[in-house]
Write a structure and sequence with these properties.
about 325 residues; mainly alpha; 15 helices
Length: about 325
């Protein structure tokens, strides 16, 4: 009961943060003008962007299959893809729930250990984080004249706070390292006693499976194919933010490089711990369009509202549909029985 209360409180706090950021994004805009933009947008470009998103999700499922297969388990592209989309649907409600959800439904459907699947997701996410960092630093480097001042203004308050509290942060870091070292020492010293505790073997088995999953990238035989899938995924992500520029007259002149920039910086809003990136994506995406490319606040607000709503609807509709198909229509036997 206590854990439920804590988790519910955290969820509500992050939801309130998202709503607050959403309010910050639109508080100075005329909602009538934003609504007028939404009514007169060229939605054919949105549907094309959603097609690119759909392709990215299919390729993500194909890439995930490479990691799962390297552990010796069999998979079907259809069920893996269903699991990926169900995960995206879960993320729109609860931040980071999608990773658990997609592993849970695929584990149940194909009889693959959950801990092994979750390890592959950690490995996949870590690899994507590296790719995102490379893209982010690349767009900053190649557009330094444009982005330099923006990055400086955005990061100056953070570094000023770090400098102001540097001594306190150093003490916290030292205490944290000492505490971690103490835990390791106690575990090693009392390991024989820990082995006799109920649940020790099960916990170690879980950690072992998780570790095997994390190391799957090293075991993938088709590493070139894994990299190719990754390039396709991130290209589709860039296209699904560039193409919607054509929806609105004021953003239609923005090019592919601007789409990559918005994708890279806007991704920071999507990974924020708020349900479905609500508020965080709107705040960051609007800031990029207004501060970097001189788009009016109204058009920038309309753009981020449209793109976020499109992606959210795609994930909710397809995730719900594929959950129904996966467990009520597809009656194939598990491949790993």
């Amino acid at each position: 009961m206590k854990n439920i209360i804590i988790q519910t409180t955290k969820y509500l706090l992050f939801l309130m943060l998202g709503v607050f950021l959403l309010w910050l994004s639109f508080r100075k805009l005329s909602l009538d003008d934003v609504w007028n933009d939404i009514l007169h947008a060229h939605y054919s470009w949105m549907f094309l962007a959603l097609l690119f998103a759909f392709i990215a999700h299919v390729v993500r499922a194909m890439r995930w299959n490479l990691l799962i297969n390297s552990l010796g388990f069999k998979t079907r592209l259809a069920t893996t893809f269903y699991a990926v989309m169900i995960g995206y649907m879960a993320n729109t409600a609860v931040p980071r729930m999608g990773e658990f959800m997609r592993c849970g439904v695929l584990s149940r459907k194909e009889k693959i250990p959950f801990n092994a699947l979750f390890g592959t997701v950690i490995s996949e996410r870590f690899f994507d984080l590296i790719v995102l960092a490379i893209i982010l630093f690349s767009v900053i480097f190649f557009q330094w004249q444009l982005l330099g001042d923006f990055v400086t203004r955005m990061t100056r308050p953070f570094f000023e706070k770090v400098d102001e509290h540097s001594f306190s942060l150093m003490i916290v870091a030292v205490v944290g390292l000492l505490f971690a070292g103490l835990l390791v020492f106690l575990f090693v010293y009392f390991r024989s006693r820990f082995r006799k505790m109920a649940g020790y073997n099960k916990t170690m088995e879980l950690l072992k499976g998780l570790g095997e999953g994390v190391r799957t990238i090293q075991k993938v035989k088709q590493k070139g194919l894994f990299v190719l899938y990754t390039l396709i995924i991130w290209t589709m992500y860039s296209l699904m933010l560039w193409v919607p520029f054509m929806m609105l007259d004021e953003t239609s002149h923005l090019g592919f490089l601007e789409g990559i920039t918005l994708m890279a910086i806007g991704s920071l809003g999507v990974v924020a711990p708020v349900p479905g990136g609500i508020g965080a994506y709107h705040f960051i995406g609007k800031a990029v369009l207004v501060e970097l490319y001189g788009i009016s606040g109204t058009s920038a607000g309309s753009f981020v509202a449209l793109t976020h709503a499109g992606q959210t609807l795609l994930h909710i509709i397809t995730g719900g549909l594929f959950y129904f198909i996966m467990f009520f229509v597809d009656h194939k036997k598990p491949l790993n029985d």
